[in-house]
Amino acid sequence: MRPSAVRLLNILVPVKRAVDYGVKIRVNPQQTGIDLNVKHSMNPFDEIAVEEAVRIRERLKDSVKSIKAVTIGPPKSIETLRTALAMGADSSIHVEIPEGSPSPEPLAVAKTLQALIKKQEGGVDIVILGKQSIDDDLGMTGQMLAGLLGWSQATFASKVDIDVAKKEVLVTREIDGGGEEIRCSLPLIITTDLRLNEPRYASLPNIMKAKKKPVEKLTPADLGMDYTPLYETLKVTEPPQRVGGGKVENVDELITKLKDAGIAAV
Questions:
Q1: Global pTM?
Q2: Are 103 and 73 in contact (CB under 8 A)?
Q3: What structural domains does the chain harbor?
């Protein structure tokens, strides 16, 4: 039997609706950003985060009390939450912003998550989120959230082992040239790397069940948040077209061409 002193874990998983990774990105005609009138899906690193939360519950059996997904986005972001619920999350929160609004910047997202965590009955023990989103590739939110809360953090996680009794987590994280093991105390922020797991496909029965799971609707004002951007994007352009290479007959011709291009010393 589980000792009564051991607290059940509550896991929060932030997820983001992003342009699908299979879409070829194009700049919009106004050059203010990319064309968003394309297929969207859950940010792949966030899929890994949801999968890991579900696997933690499967490994620890009845030591996990709840898995809650949260997203900040327009009305269509509800589909991203439904995917998380179909994968195994128990409930979700949708902080809804108007359609066409720019995505909140990482600091605003971190402050929103901080406010949500403070509002959760029973508290939050672990936050698992993707190390970055594939649209802006900033990779800041997890670290900022840990700083705001004063919690332990383990970024770029490729393996997670939790000792519920000791309230400790052993995380293997990706670093240049290998892996690093760090031991963290709860509560904890974890950001996921690609090697952590392979997300499951949501089955049709679970997709149907997800429609009945609770989704709490909030607005930024409910949390005292202001998503006015702190920086302005002046212009977005596509990179210049790559020019094809050419062949040379011998080394002397190569050196001549390099000199003409100003690459080789005369």
A1: 0.84
A2: yes
A3: 9-241 (3.40.50.620)
